[in-house]
Amino acid sequence: MNEGSPCRLELEKALRLLEEVQEISRTGGWEYNVANKHITWTSGVYRIYGVEPDFDPNNLDRCIGFYDPDSAPVIMEAFNKTLAHGEPYDLELRLTRGDGRTIWIRTVGKATVESGRIVRLSGDIMDIDELKRAQLKTVELTAELERRVADRTEKLERINKDLETFSQAISHDLKAPLRAIAGFSRMVAEDYHDVLDAEGQRMLTVVSDNATTLDTVLTEILNLARIGTTNLDMVNLSMKQMVVAMFHEVATADEVSTVHLKIRDIPDCIGDSILMRKVWGNLIDNALKFTVGRDPRTIEIYAQVSDDKSTYYIKDNGTGFNEDYTDKLFVPFQQLHSRSEYKGIGAGLALVKRIVEIHGGTTGASGKNGQGAVFWFTIPKISRPKDGGNPRA
Amino acid sequence: MDEKKAVDILLVEDNQNDAELTLRALRKSNITNTIVHVHDGQEALDYVFARGQYKERDIKLAPRLMLLDLKLPKIDGLEVLKAVKSDPRTKMMPVVVLTTSKEENDILESYEHNANSYIVKPVDFDKFVNAVKELGLYWLLLNVMP
Question: Are B125 and A208 within 8 A, CB to CB?
Fold first, then answer.
C-alpha cells in the first residue's frame, strides 16, 4: 500500500476514528492468537491499564498482576475456559492501574473457531469505574434506606403497641376507680340524705360530676388514640342520610324540635361509615354546643363539588371564635373556651381532622367572635373502596 | 340459701366496688331475685359445674343469667365464657359480659365464644343503674328460654 494512496487514506481515517471512539468510550480491544500465543492490544487497553505504549502485553503474569486478588483468579479461569471450550465471558472486575489507581472494568471475551478449532480469542475491556461506583453507591444507599425504614417501622410498631397497652390501661385501670367514685358518692347522697345538709349534697354532686367529666376526657383520648390503628372499610356513603341520623343521635329531644337544621343537596362520598359518622357527630355536636342561647339556633349544611373532591360545610349562628386561633381549633387539648362552659378536652375537632386526613382530605374553619362559625372538610372523589369493601347505595 | 333452688343471677366480679354497684343497681331496679356473687374465674366455674365448695349444688339448676366481668383473677373471663358455652349442660345459660373494656378484640372474642350480650359498664351512676336495669328486665323477664 503506497503512502498517500486512497486506500491508505481510508485506513488512516478508520484508525483515527477507532482511536477517538476508544478514548471517548474508554474502551480497548485485544486479541490472542492461539497458534503463536501472541497478544495484541489496541491503544485503549494501554490507556485503561495505565501503562506506557512500550509495555509488553505478552507478559501474562504482569497482565494478571494488575487485577485485584479477588479478580485475578476469575479472569484467569474465564480466559482458560474460552481458550479450552470457546465459552464466552462477560465480567466486571477490579484492577489496579499502572499509576496505582484502582478502577472497575468490564471485560468481554469470545473465541473464533475455524474448521472446528479455536484459533483466536478476542474481546474488549471497558473502564466502567464511574458507572460502577455510582451503582454501588445506589445499592449501598438503598440498603441504608431500607435499614432505616425497617428501624423506623419497628420503632413505630413498638410505639403503637405501647399506645395500645396504654389505652387498655386507661380503659381498665382508670375507669373502674372512676366508676367507684361516681357511684359511691351517689350512694352516700342517697343513703345519708337525711344526715347531709344541702351543702353536703352539693359537694357530693361535685365529686360525681367530676368523675363523669374525667370519664369523658378519658373516652376522648382513647377515641383519638384508636383512630390510627383502625382499618378503613371504604363504602359509598349517603352523607345526607348520615347528617340526619347523626343530628338525631347527638341532639337532645328538645334540640331536635327547636334547632333549625337546613341540609342542602350534599353529595354522597366514599368513606368509612363508622369514622364518617364520628366526623358529622362531632361537627354537629360542636355546632349545637356553640349555638346554645341563640334564638333561633340555626345549623346549615351544604357542599361544593369540584372535579377531584367534595367540600362539605357546616355553618352555625353560634358564638363563633377568634379567627387568630383557627390553627388551634384542630389540635387536641387546646380549647378556646373555658372548661366550665364545655365538657371535654376539645379532642372532637382533632378527631375530625385525623379521620378526614386518613380519607385523604383536609379540614378548615372560619368564624368571627360572636358571628357564628363555618367548619369544612374535603373528601377526595378518587378514593376507591378497598378490596372487600362492599359499596352500599 | 336454699341449695335446691336455682339462683337467678350469678355475678362474676372481682372488683368489690363494682359488685356493690351492680347489686345496688339491681336492687334499685326492683330485681330482688336471688343473686350469687363469686369473685374469680375459678369460683365461677366451680359454681356452674358444682365442683369444689359448690359440689353439693345440683348442676341441673343453672343460674338464669350470668353477669361476667372479663378481667378476673385465676381464670380469665373469656376462659369462663368458653367453658360455659362449650359444655352441653350449661351452654343454654345466657351470659352477659359486663366489663370496663371497650376494646374491639374483647368484644369480638366474647361474641365469638357465644356471649349473649356485651355491655360496657358506664362510669356515670345513673347510666350504670339504667344499663343493669335494662339487662335484668330483658334477660329475666322478657326473654323466653326453652
Answer: yes
